[in-house]
Each structure stands twice: as structure tokens, then as C-alpha cells.
Amino acid sequence: MKNNLNTLVTGGRGLVGSSLSEDMHKVNSDFDLRDKSITDKLISSLSPTSVVHCAAKVGGLGGNMNMKGEFFYDNIMINTNVIESCRKYGVEKLVCFLSTCVFPDDVEYPLTEKKIHLGEPHNSNYPYAYAKRMADIQIRAYREQYGLNYVSVIPTNIYGPNDNFNLKNGHVIPSLIHKCYLAKKNDTDFKVWGSGKPLREFIYSEDVAKLTEWVLENYNEKEPIILSTSEEISIKEVVNLIVKYMDFKGSVVWQDDKPDGQFRKPSDNSKLLSYLPDFKFTSIEKGLEKTIDWFINNYESSRK
Ligand code: GDP
């Protein structure tokens, strides 16, 4: 990696940021990127050659449904400010994180990089989705007007150490690991939302970090690139693996009054594989084991 010392990471202590190379300059929520003057000051004072923009207001299905206004405002402000400050202060390469939530709900599967704007996102997370879609628009516009080499990535559901293990607002894997941990400790039921039938594509945070470092050096197209294993797994199978690795002996209760969210959102990773045909993804089994070990060993200090 050439330019590491000149790379700034926003969201540096988050799930992806914390897995990126320690040579990069990582900043976290001490900087309120919703504020334009703070964002300007940060980027002008550090004057990075490149920026990996991971910072976002994120949450799982619960967070997205309960905080629609905040999810829209915070994300649209953060992205608009970061991309504009990068332009203003001469950042040569920007890698911006989108999410598979950006895709339309009613669209022909699999999801490809060309389908982002073809229809309304799912009702459970449209504020987050539209805010992220606008980052794609801003990048496209800046490439066209200013000739900047700014790109974006679309990872599927990321999980791993340093995630937010909040029970209500976290993503499914960290929330379920935390719930199972408490159910085991307190000898109670392990309560899971919905039917367990929805399918998701999970990607381990360290894989995303490796791919991001590759994108920073090598990916220069105007269209985003999907970072995905393109392997679907049901929530039920994920629950079974968590139960196994946490050695939980109690009952699993499926809460059918809680939402299932989108049924599936299978993605097409063929663009990624055309560049990196030999990339070895961490299996869900290995990734879950590592995440669970990390959570148990870092329970006190983990975000929850
Ligand atoms: P999504 O992929 O954007 O929908 O986000 P999530 O990571 O929150 O995954 C949501 C899926 O996991 C839905 O099918 C939920 O019904 C299911 N799920 C089961 N239990 C939980 C839980 O405790 N928290 C969350 N966030 N999702 C859960």
C-alpha cells in the first residue's frame, strides 16, 4: 500500500474503520461531520491524499424504523459535507460507503450496480436509503464536473468485532449475539424477531477492510462496486450457528409480532470477481466464531 499515511478514515472506530490498516489516520464521532465547519476544519488541517468515508448513522431494522428523521438528516448532512470538503481541500481519491439498503424494493434480482435508482427503497429503511443514494449522485456529479476520482462501494450486511451490539437498534448478528449471551447468563429464552425465513448476505468486516484497501488503490469506475459473497443464508440458520457457538441450551422463541423486514436482497458480485477472481471470503461459520469470541472477551468495553 503506497498512500496509507495520507489516508483519512471517517468512522474510524466503527465496524469497518477499526479493521482497516493501522497506518491510516482514523477519526471517529469526536468530529461531528453533520457540521460543515467541523468537517472543513478536519479535512483542511489533515490535508489527506485520500479518504475512506465509513462514518454514518447506522442501525439495523429497529434503528431504521424508529429513527427515520435522524437517519435521513444525519446521513445526508454527513455525506454532503464530507464529499464537498474532500473536493474543496484537494482529496484525490475518495471511497464512500453505501449499503445494499439503497436498492429498490421491487426490482428484478439479483441486485447489480446498475439498479440503484430504479424504484422506491423498502419502506423500513427508505430515509437511510435515499440519503445514501444521494452520495452516489453527488459522487457522479463531482466526477463529471470536477473530474475527481471518487468512487463508492456497496457492501451487503457487514458483521464482525467492534460492531454495535445494541439490543434494539443494532444489526441482526450483533443484536442476536448479545441477546443469546444474556439469555445464557440469565437462564432465559433467546428471543428472535420475525419468522427466521428472511435471507441475507453477510460479509465479515475484515474482508470488507481488505476489499476497501484494494478499492482505494485500484478501483476507479464511476459506478459503485458491490462487495458481497453473493451467498444467502436465512436468519434461522444464523440463529442456529449462534446457538451452537455460544453453547446455548435454552429455548429459542420466534417473535412473530416483530418485523421480518425485506424478505431477501440477493446481490450479484460478478463485477468484484471480475477484478479479484481469487478473493477468499471468510465463511459465515468462521466469522461468527471470531465475532462471538471477540464479544465475550470484550463485553465490558463493547458498544451496546
Ligand atoms: P436489514 O438487513 O437492513 O433488514 O437489517 P438487520 O441486520 O437488522 O436484519 C434484519 C433481519 O433480521 C430481519 O429479518 C429481522 O426480522 C431479523 N432479526 C431477528 N432478530 C433480530 C434482532 O434482534 N435484531 C435485528 N436487527 N434483526 C433481527
Q: How is this structure best described in words?
A:
The protein is an alpha/beta fold and 304 residues long. 39% of the residues lie in helices and 14% in strands. The chain contains 9 helices and 12 strands. It has helices spanning 36-46, 61-66, 68-88, 126-146, 172-186, 205-218, 235-245, 270-275, 284-297; strands at 7-10, 25-27, 50-53, 93-97, 149-155, 157-159, 190-193, 199-200, 202-204, 225-227, 233-234, 252-255. The strands form 4 sheets. Strands 2-1-3-4-5-10 form a 6-stranded parallel β-sheet, with helices on both faces. It has a two-stranded parallel ribbon with strand order 6-9. A two-stranded parallel ribbon has the order 7-12. Helix 3 (68-88) runs parallel beside helix 4 (126-146), helix 5 (172-186) packs across helix 7 (235-245) and helix 5 (172-186) crosses helix 9. The mean pLDDT is 96. Guanosine-5'-diphosphate (GDP) binds at residues 60-62, 101, 125, 157, 171-172, 175-176, 179, 192-194, 198, 200, 235, 259-262. Residues 60-62, 101, 125, 157, 171-172, 175-176, 179, 192-194, 198, 200, 235, 259-262 line the site of guanosine-5'-diphosphate (GDP).
Helix and strand arrangement:
Layout: E1 7-10, E2 25-27, H1 36-46, E3 50-53, H2 61-66, H3 68-88, E4 93-97, H4 126-146, E5 149-155, E6 157-159, H5 172-186, E7 190-193, E8 199-200, E9 202-204, H6 205-218, E10 225-227, E11 233-234, H7 235-245, E12 252-255, H8 270-275, H9 284-297
Parallel strand pairs: 1-2, 1-3, 3-4, 4-5, 5-10, 6-9, 7-12
Antiparallel strand pairs: 8-11
Bound molecules: guanosine-5'-diphosphate.
